[in-house]
Amino acid sequence: MKKIIAAAMLVASFALVSASAKTKVTEEVKVKIIDHQNSASGGSLPDWVKATREGSKRKIAKALDVDYKDNHLFIIIDEGPNLAFLKTWARQVNGASQISQEFERVVAEVVQAESEGKSDTEVATMNEAAKIYSASMHNLVLNGLAKESEYWVLQRTLAPEYSSWKKMEKALKTAKKKSKGGEVDTKDFYTDQYVYYIVYLMDNDTYDRQMEAALSDVGDNSTESTLLKQSLTSKLQDALVPSGAVVEPASDDE
Fold first, then answer.
1. Are 56 and 49 in contact (CB under 8 A)?
2. How far is it, in rounded angstroms, from Cα 78 to Cα 195?
3. CB 55 within 8 A of CB 22
4. Are 70 and 91 a contacting pair, CB within 8 Å?
């Protein structure tokens, strides 16, 4: 499952656990890191990875020593059970293509939101403009993307029927005891998944110039097309802020 986070946006097909770095965790988080790229050498998790998982765009930029106001940071993420496969994906993935695909999806999302409450005529006009925007995003080739960093983690997700790690561990211990040495399927208790992060960097001037060109194909000749363009521009710039976080609690208390 792939998703893209940008320092000015989060384009994702699914959400992480919602929380900010400063949000008080009131419920036990059901995802935790059990291994990562630097573990074998005794290293710690990079700050930019922590910031990504917290959903803090400013911390991501700060950790990578990137000027947040002058640059766009895109973080493409994929996950799966096979680390070797993800490493191969990381070598072959086309960052510009992935981002363009997500931009195309955002067009459809904005059109759907803006169409609510509109008349059939207004919706028809908006859909015509949307077709052009969608094609522009599909054909968009973002020049100037530079790979900044990459990293993998292995995270464990608690099965939904358990409200805490302690309860799961107790149930797993009981299951192993009942099996009398037999094999117990841990997927009934938790799931392990590798997550691979790749960071791309682009300066704002380059990004803005290319996006302006991509959005200029539709003339502002109707109220609907003008509103759609304004909403789409805003969505691409701001609405995709990292809104999800995976925050590991300090303790495992119930």
1. no
2. 6
3. no
4. no
d(CA 130, CA 110): 9
Residue carrying structure tokens 């059990």? 34
Does the model's pTM come out above 0.85?
Answer: no
CA distance readout (Å), 79 to 35, 139, 155, 172: 14, 26, 10, 25
AA identity, residue 13: S
Residues 6 or more apart whose Cβ sits within 8 Å of residue 78: 1, 2, 86, 89, 90, 93, 195, 196
Can you read off the two tokens belonging to residue 213? 């060109």
Q: Which two tokens stand for residue 189?
A: 């208790």
Element (H, E) at 10: strand 9-12
Pairing of strands 190-203, 146-158: antiparallel
Contact assessment for residue 45 and residue 52, using Cβ atoms and an 8 Å cutoff: no
Q: What is the pLDDT of residues 178-193, one digit of tens each?
A: 998 889 999 999 999 9
Report whether 33 contacts 250 (CB < 8 A). Answer: no
Neighbours of 89 (CB within 10 A): 16
Q: Where are the alpha helices (DSSP H) in the chain?
A: 47-54, 57-63, 83-92, 95-115, 120-139, 165-179, 204-214, 223-234
d(CA 16, CA 53): 8
For residue 218, what pLDDT band results from cuts at 50, 70 and 90?
low
Given a contact cutoff of 8 angstroms between Cβ atoms, the answer to whether 46 and 151 are in contact is yes
